Amino acid sequence: MKNYQQILLSVFSFSLLFLLAACGPSVSSQTNTQQTVTIDKSFQSQRTPVPTVPPYRCSAWSSNNAPAPNATITIYARLTRDVAPVSGATATAVVHFKTFDQSLNAQAPSDAGGYVTFTLQLQGQQPTQVPATVGVTFSNIRGGPNTLRCTPAFFTPM
């Protein structure tokens, strides 16, 4: 009886081993060869040139990006030439509300720091949660372009 159990256990073990081997991963004798990439030396001469930084730059920003609907905010703008401030330039601004545009004029030309300011009374003209932008343009720039548009300022009444 003991021999019979050993034979049965051996047959069962070999069957289980055979079943596990049948379910294992298959090994393929074919290998996938990848193509060799060749880069032509003339490829490097086709690079794009690095863009140049413009000598005159300006930007604009608001004193409060999330004012109350009836607040009064200040719009600032700065004009520079190679990072140095430009004074004496005239600036105008246009506020782009949801339903209309409003022009603003600076109180004075750009100061010694290149700054100008605009006072804007919102008076509930822009709906809450709706962003508005302010475009600023400098003109009469000594030795520079006729006009220069700044990066716009923005605000969203809350």
Give your account of this protein's structure:
With 158 residues, the chain is α+β, with helices and mostly antiparallel strands. The chain has a domain at 56-155: Immunoglobulins (Immunoglobulin-like, Sandwich). 14% of the residues lie in helices and 33% in strands. It contains 1 helix and 9 strands. The chain has one helix at 2-23, and strands at residues 56-62, 72-81, 84-85, 90-96, 101-105, 115-121, 132-139, 147-149, 153-155. Strands 4, 5, 7, 8 and 9 form a 5-stranded antiparallel beta sheet that branches. Strands 1, 2, 3 and 6 form a 4-stranded antiparallel beta sheet that branches. β2 and β3 form a beta hairpin. The radius of gyration is 37 Å and the shape is elongated. The termini are far apart. The relative contact order is 0.19. The model has no long low-confidence stretch (mean pLDDT 87).
How does the SSE layout of this entry go?
Elements: H1 2-23, E1 56-62, E2 72-81, E3 84-85, E4 90-96, E5 101-105, E6 115-121, E7 132-139, E8 147-149, E9 153-155
Antiparallel strand pairs: 1-2, 2-3, 2-6, 4-5, 4-7, 7-8, 7-9
Short synopsis of the structure:
This protein is an alpha+beta fold and 158 residues long. It is built from 1 helix and 9 strands; from the N terminus they run αβββββββββ.
**CATH-assigned fold name of the domain at 56-155:** Immunoglobulin-like
Class of secondary structure makeup:
alpha+beta
Helix % is 10-25%
Return the average pLDDT rounded to an integer.
87
CATH hierarchy: architecture of the domain at 56-155: Sandwich
Strand residues, percent: 25-35%
Give the H and E element order: HEEEEEEEEE
Per DSSP, the total helix count is: 1
The strand count comes to: 9
CATH superfamily of the domain at 56-155: Immunoglobulins
Shape: elongated
